[in-house]
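Q: Hi! First time doing this. I have a protein sequence and I read that you can turn it into a structure. Is that right? Here it is:
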Amino acid sequence: MNFEFNEDQKAIQKLARDFAQSELRPNAAKWDISGEFPFEIVPKLAALGFMGLTIPEKYAGAALDLTSAAIVIEEIAKECGSTALTLAAHNGLCQRHILDFASEEIKQKYLPDLAQGKKLGAWALTEPGSGSDASGLKTRAIADKDGFVLNGSKAFITQGSVGDTYVVLASTNPEKKQKGITAFLIEKGTPGFKSGKPEDKLGCRSSDTAQLSFENVRVSKDRVIGEVDRGFIDTLKILDKGRVIIGAMALGLGEAALRAAVKYAKEREQFGKPLSSFQAIQWKIANMSTELEAARLLVYRAAHLHSEGKRATLESSMAKLYASEAATRACNEAIQIHGGYGYIKEYPVERFWRDAKLCEIGEGTSEVQRMVISKSILE
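A: Yes, that's right. Below is the predicted 3D structure, encoded as structure tokens:
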């Protein structure tokens, strides 16, 4: 069993780390405060191939495996959770759905612009009344002779107001529930399709999140992604890989919090000696480090299985569940180690905590992951 990254993966890791430290570290706090989407970073990410991480070269992508993609997301998250989330939704959801299930015509038309960062991708499943119960979505797509007419709304959509290309899930056969959902490709500017204002969020504040509305939106038959009524089945496969990416994001945020806590504990003195000399602090650091190392093994085991072309539903859910909760615990302990300073924005640990909390919610809550895991074991 080899737990080491290969030379190509180490090179990708260094590239992402250097970029994150030079371009994201100086700006992450400023972007977090403003809550505005940093459009200026997109071309820089694209120049490194990060806007098309796993997209084949024939569609202008970087053609990386999922392990390498997870490495990039982890390194980006260490400096800016918002940017990591932007990349996760753009790469792991929107583009992945198109790549795995769309027609060749759609792939050739849309993937190159997405992979080169000329357009931003969004993926719309969640609705105001359906979150964890995604199969209960109410957005309807009614077939007619020219294609489909969509009506409904979506909520909490990453890249919701800044996106250009949207993969939208809608019910085509409500009586069939999850077996009657279809995926559609819809472009910004399509008549009847509107984005709401960006949400004012707790964390990942410079990652755009907004509601979408559809009022008699016409979609032609050739913009159906995959087979009619099989969109939700395809979605589950997309989420398997997406959860690995969110696990990597959580891992990066947890490691950033650990790094900050260690630095502060060594520098801060109380009772005439550094905090790091106190056993209470040492044990916190030991627990944080151990849990994050366990999360790392889970995340990269799942990523490796996907990179080998294997289905890894159980492993992906375990990785996402454990990494997200371990990251939140690490961030919480980092704040505690910082004391009062951890509660103010001058220090980054409070931002890491706010960003990490999203990883317990997005792409399936911790509760949903436990459902997936228990079902896999008990079947």
